[in-house]
Structures are given as C-alpha cells and as structure tokens.
Design goal:
Blueprint lengths: L3 E7 L4 H7 L1 H9 L3 E6 L6 H10 L3 H4 L15 H7 L4 E6 H7 L11 E3 L8 E5 L14 H15 L3 E6 L1 H9 L4 H14 L2 H7 L2 E6 L15 H4 E7 L10 E3 L3 H9 L15
Parallel strand pairs: 1-6, 1-7, 2-9, 3-5, 3-6
Antiparallel strand pairs: 2-8, 4-5, 7-8
Helix pairs in contact: 8-9
Length: 278
C-alpha cells in the first residue's frame, strides 16, 4: 500500500450542520490541518443506496440498491475487494448493511456481529451492529466513542491498510427531532467532541483520514429525494494528497476511486468518476 486511510461516515449530516456545529473539524480546516469540500449524494439519497455507491463508485441505477429494504451482496468491484486484491488488510466498524453489501447476505447476528477472516476477499475484520428494534422512541444506536475505539483497536491489532467506520447516531437524531432544535445542536456538538481526540491519534499512526456523511437531511428530518438539504454534505480530508479548490463541487461516486488512488491501488474500470485527490 502506498498509504493507509480511514473513512469515517457520520450518517445523515447536512452541509449546513458542519460549518455551524462541528467546531473541532472546522478548527482543523482553519489551521490548515484539514481541507473541506461540499459533496452531493447519489439519488435516491437513501442510506443503503448511498452506502453501496460510496464503496462501488457507481450509482444506484447501476448497483441496484433502491433503498433500505433492498439490501443484498453487491456484484461490482468495491474499495474493500480492490484493497484485498492489492494485498492490503481491511476492516469495518459499521451498521450490518455494510457486511451484507460487501461480505455476506443475509446478516447472521451471531456469525457476523464480529469476525476476523484473514483470507476474506473483502472485509478481513468486521465489527457490526444491526440496530434491531430501531424506532422513533428508541434509537438503538451504540455509543460513538465505543465505535471510534473499536476502529482504533482494529488498526492497532491488525495493521489495517484501509478501515471504514459508519455511525447512524446523527441520522437517527435528525429523524426524531429534526434539525432546528437544541437536541440536534447538542448531538452534533457531542459527535464532534467524541471524534476529535481520535483524529490526531490516527494521524500519528500513519493514517490519512476522511470524515464525511452519506447524505444530508432536510428541516423535517427527511432524505431520499433531490434537494440540497437532503443530498449535500461536507467532506473533510486530513492527508498529503493534492486536491481541487475548496469551491469545487464533488460527487459521491468520486469517493471510491479517490480512496483507491490515495492507497496506491488500481482503480477498476467500473469506477468511471474522476478521483479528486492525487
């Protein structure tokens, strides 16, 4: 591997929330330690559809995941599979949909909640949660500090070349409380504060770090359609790669080939969007 990289996905964070509420991430941009761009999700801007596009670099109209009720093992090359082909070690701490898309479907709550499979052609080290029972009255989300710690644990134990973390906390809070409220302000503040100590730690361990979202949310806590609040979110990059000017609009399908380029891994022909980092 040319580099090591961690992708941190904060589910359901619209562009407007980052600049207003994520003081640590914004402070690193001001200091020059990070760069920030605006990225637009695929359509539908539904969680599972976006997850699939983030790692395959193709739209839902190509990979076929039309929403959260249509989850299956994807057929296209993806970031995990290409890193494995290049001899890298992969890990993921995420919602169970990620295991189903990139390892095995259906998700077995005993077999797949935690696995270490050195010979896997996709995810070597997985730590997954299902959020079974999720609803308006009970968010069923794990502590984000525990998730960040789990990824760090995998990096240290298995020397990951590429690691991905996904948390649904802010998406769930947005669906429940919407966005113009004290509860959402506080949730974003806590996420930013929990994440902050891990970024310098990951950087000291040699990782480039991307912090981003899968989609946004509108004022009523909805996403899925074509609306700037539902589709647009921030991408923060901590690393040495050269990128475009900060006013460049990025597309979600550019993320997979960009990650592979930074890792020094060949980009498959199916990923036709241009990488935005050299």
């Amino acid at each position: 591997m040319q580099n090591k990289l961690l992708l941190i996905i904060l589910d359901g964070v619209p562009w407007r929330n980052c600049g207003r509420l994520f003081g640590n991430l914004e402070g690193w941009v001001d200091s020059g330690a990070a760069r920030k761009w605006r990225m637009t999700s695929v359509l539908p801007s539904t969680s599972a559809s976006c997850y699939a596009s983030i790692h395959t670099g193709v739209t839902p109209q190509v990979h076929g995941c039309t929403g959260n009720s249509n989850v299956f093992r994807l057929r296209q090359p993806d970031v995990f599979s290409e890193v494995r082909k290049a001899g890298g070690v992969t890990g993921a701490v995420a919602h169970s949909f990620w295991s189903e898309f990139f390892n095995r479907h259906p998700f077995d709550h005993v077999r797949d909640v935690e696995y270490d499979e050195p010979d896997s052609t996709s995810i070597n080290h997985g730590r997954f949660h299902s959020m079974a029972g999720y609803g308006h009255a009970n968010q069923m989300t794990p502590s984000d500090k525990d998730l960040f710690a789990s990824l760090t644990n995998l990096c240290q134990r298995f020397e990951l070349s590429y690691g991905m973390l996904h948390t649904c906390t802010l998406d769930s809070m947005g669906h429940r409380f919407h966005h113009d409220c004290p509860e959402m302000d506080h949730a974003c503040f806590v996420m930013d504060e929990m994440l902050a100590p891990f970024i310098p730690r990951w950087r000291a361990e040699g990782y480039e770090v991307i912090v981003t979202a899968d989609h946004g949310q509108d004022a009523r806590g909805h996403h899925g359609g074509r609306d700037a609040l539902q589709q647009d979110f921030a991408l923060y990059y901590f690393g040495e790669g050269a990128g475009p000017s900060e006013d460049t609009a990025l597309r979600q399908v550019q993320l997979a080939p960009t990650i592979l380029r930074r890792l020094g891994v060949d980009i498959p022909a199916t990923m036709t969007a241009a990488p935005f980092l050299s």
